[in-house]
Amino acid sequence: MSSNPLPADLCPATRAIHAGRPPHDPDQPLNVPITMASTYVAGGAKEYGRYANDAWTAFEDALGALEGGRALAFASGMAAVATVLDLVGPDSVVVTARHSYLGTLGVLADLEARGRAKSTLVDISDTAAVIDAIDEDTALVWFESPTNPAMEVADIPAIIAAAHEAGARVVIDNTFATPVLQNPLALGADIVVHSATKYIAGHSDVLMGAIVVADDTEGQALYDVLKGRRDLIGAIPGAFEAWLALRGLRTLPLRVERASANAAELARRLADHPAIEEVRYPGFGGMVAIVVRGGAGPADVLVRATRLWVHATSLGGVESTFERRRRWKGEASTIPEGLVRLSVGIEDVEDIWADLKGALDGL
């Protein structure tokens, strides 16, 4: 079990390496072993495989240390999303960004169709409009920053302040920014959600999600409720998946640093290419959106014309991937037909630029 307390003043890169390790005792392994068990001998704290696993605990300790709170691991990002949204009571309102992950919007639409909740979609970059949409009926304000796939950035402190004044909780999906670049709990958010499938695990080989809450009295109450829901529903990751995700998290700061540097350079070069109508880059992170001139047709040609860039719907891996988002019928009509979302990897920037530029030149 992970039980190696860390000094409070460590930097994120150090926390990512050392959090969630076994104690420094003789013959202890450096990594928490994978425990493949569905059942434990009765009388202890674990009892059953749906309630606890040492690999989850180690991963949760490490992610919690990076986000500045207490983490819970889930079977997928959507399992984490659905668990939080399941707490919304009847007739409550969820204010959320109109440009959000399709799965999140899908759960909200399902809840609304079943009379479980109502949702109000807002332009998260229009702070005044967001604040105006929050009232006494609002239970949750849920958003991403940057948004997926529009790459809009929210005024997080202002929105949190307005939500709390109205008595609403704030949930921030931190998948794009990662805890290396942004800590929403430190800004006052109540809950942070991750698709750990993406940057956290980072190697396109794990499906996992996570929820993080503050490490205080109110956060403990939320933690107990959310863990209770996870135990009841069984939305738990496998031990091997948790172990892989933790191994990926160890290099998260390095990967984010390299992907961010590559993305910033590509955004600069793409802005001058005649085939590009618009480049959307918030100035941090490894995600970039481009709008290809001519709309869907040229954009579809682009994603099939590269050798290194992979046409794929996920993101946050070591490899560079991209896709035209409007190929998904559920994507918002406010997303341009020619918008291509780029997840910039950690390859040599000259190689991925040459590959991308060659495909763009061919348009």
TrEMBL record:
It comes from the Bacteria. Keywords: Aminotransferase, Pyridoxal phosphate, Transferase. One of its GO terms (molecular function) is transaminase activity. The keyword Transferase applies. The keyword Metal-binding does not apply. Signal peptide: none annotated. Its cofactor is pyridoxal 5'-phosphate. InterPro entries: Cys/Met-Metab_PyrdxlP-dep_enz (IPR000277), Cys_met_metab_PP (IPR054542), PyrdxlP-dep_Trfase (IPR015424), PyrdxlP-dep_Trfase_major (IPR015421), PyrdxlP-dep_Trfase_small (IPR015422). Belongs to the trans-sulfuration enzymes family. This is PLP-dependent aspartate aminotransferase family protein. It comes from Nocardioides eburneus.
